[in-house]
Design brief:
Layout: E1 6-9, H1 13-26, E2 29-35, E3 48-53, H2 64-73, E4 78-80, H3 90-98, E5 102-103, H4 108-115, H5 117-126, E6 130-131, H6 142-152, E7 156-160, E8 170-172, H7 175-193, E9 198-202, E10 208-216, E11 222-234, E12 237-243, H8 250-267, E13 271-279, E14 285-291, H9 298-305, H10 309-317, E15 334-341, E16 343-344, E17 350-351, E18 354-355, E19 358-360, E20 367-371, E21 378-379, E22 386-394, H11 397-410, E23 412-414, H12 420-428, H13 430-433
Parallel strand pairs: 1-2, 1-4, 2-3, 4-5, 6-14
Antiparallel strand pairs: 7-8, 7-9, 10-11, 10-13, 11-12, 12-15, 13-14, 15-22, 16-17, 18-21, 19-23, 20-22
Helix pairs in contact: 3-4, 6-7, 11-12
Length: about 450
């Protein structure tokens, strides 16, 4: 038993159902905080929930005071933020703690440190991780930006200090382009995060996006759960993820896994976290940032290790020592996840809200479906368009690709347009099959015939 009897879920949709599933298995009562737009969601049937506000996220899922108040009023001793929304806001974590609600995530000061990209990079370098060349810290002036770019060479990437999800990010390939891109990045970062500060990095073009899953407790114990390759992206948003990251040279992978684990210990990190890297063309993994929350793609690591990462999060937050040791872990086969969104991939990924008139997910050996939708569910227009995650595992990567294609072909979703055609095109492409993809393009899409 974790020590928690009731956990408030300050999120919605697929991640909310994912957290509740683990709570059920652990004998914990989940309580959902929802918006008015989600009142008819099928996952609420027979569940405890509180309407925390109107449909707009700013009045509900992004309203920290309302969420903490609802957790207190429903006698929840802990709160799980899921991903997105307030999951990486140190102020929210601090507010929970101030009101006696355990935040299932790292301490606020660690979230704050890792949310500030340049201090975080310094701490990672101390642990032996490689960094992407760039500015020493915040770029204070156009003159400084020009000097840094001259030193590291074009193209350069302008990034928001408090950013995420590709916002506040611009590419510059010349001095002339740099100044205009800086202004755009600062304006977008200020609007999105309330922080206009930016820094510069050398742009690694056509690199591979690799991330390491970490679990740490408050007693100085940490373990990695291997690496995931998340290189299939659109506008820095992941579409397909897989594990293990077989493209990384074994010696480099082992050194990075060891250093990432040590970095978590050095930080005093507590909970689940993900360190993200770019694989450079010289075979070196270079640290980009750390996500201080549960990742959407945590499922591929669960499929390989047999662990429940949400359960480990809950146990760690309850003050229990880490139960997992590196020498006890085994990685079985290869896993792939496809994020199925209600979007039209042939129309610039335009959102496709509406009623799902038919939903029949695939099933079978090595297939997992994480979803919150059912037939007659109405996809609201207010939030992220993720409607399901399809995850498969097989003995080899090639077999996993084949299994995923079969599973996607079996998946029936009618009434809204989805990204399933995109996933099938990628999986059938020779580029993906040969493990030659990179973050610069979506292989096989759009189809040529």
């Amino acid at each position: 038993m974790s020590g928690f009897h009731r956990i408030f879920i300050a999120n919605r949709g697929e991640v909310a159902t994912r957290i509740a599933r683990t709570c059920d298995r652990m004998g914990i009562t989940p309580v959902f905080g929802i918006s008015e737009a989600d009142l008819a969601a099928p996952y609420l049937t027979g569940r405890e929930y509180v309407v925390v506000g109107p449909s707009r996220a700013s009045d509900s899922y992004l309203a920290p005071q309302r969420l903490v108040q609802a957790a207190k009023q429903t006698a929840c001793s802990a709160l799980h933020p899921g991903w997105g929304f307030l999951s990486e806001r140190p102020q929210f974590a601090a507010l929970c703690e101030a009101h006696g609600v355990s935040f299932i995530g790292p301490p606020p000061h660690i979230m704050h440190l890792m949310g500030q990209k340049t201090p975080a990079k310094g701490r990672m370098a101390e642990a032996g991780l490689h960094l992407i060349p760039g500015s020493e810290g915040i770029v204070e002036s156009p003159q400084e930006a020009l000097a840094v770019a001259e030193h590291i060479g074009y193209p350069v990437l302008i990034k928001a200090e408090s950013g995420g999800g590709g916002r506040g990010m611009r590419i510059a390939r010349s001095h002339e382009a740099l100044l205009a891109a800086m202004n755009e990045a600062q304006a977008e970062a200020s609007a999105a995060f309330g922080d206009p500060r930016i820094y510069l990095e050398k742009l690694i073009e056509n690199g591979r996006h690799v991330e390491v899953q970490i679990l740490s407790d408050k007693y100085g114990n940490a373990v990695h759960l291997g690496a995931r390759d998340c290189s299939i992206q659109r506008n820095h948003q992941k579409l397909i993820e897989e594990s293990p990251a077989t493209i990384v040279p074994s010696a480099e992978m082992e050194a990075t896994l060891t250093s990432a684990t040590q970095a978590a210990i050095n930080l005093g990190y507590v909970g689940a976290g993900t360190m993200e890297f770019l694989l450079d063309h010289d075979g070196t993994l270079k640290f980009m940032e750390m996500n201080t929350r549960l990742q959407v793609e945590h499922t591929v690591s669960e499929m390989l290790t047999g662990l429940d990462i949400v359960e480990e999060q809950i146990r760690i937050a309850a003050g229990q020592p880490l139960r997992i040791h590196a020498d006890h872990l085994t990685w079985d086969g290869h896993a792939i996840e496809c994020r199925i969104n209600a979007e039209d991939p042939f129309n610039n990924f335009r959102p496709s809200p509406g009623v799902i008139t038919q939903f029949t997910p695939p099933s079978g050996e090595g297939i997992r479906v994480d979803t919150h939708v059912a037939t007659n569910y109405e996809v609201p227009p207010y939030y992220d368009s993720l409607i399901a995650k399809l995850i498969v595992r097989a003995p080899t990567r090639n077999q996993a690709i084949n299994r995923m294609i079969e599973a996607l072909e079996q998946c029936t979703i009618e009434g809204v347009i989805t990204t399933i055609p995109l996933h099938l095109a990628v999986l059938r492409s020779e580029t993906f099959r040969n493990n030659q993809q990179h973050s610069g393009v979506i292989p096989g899409f759009p189809p040529t015939s």
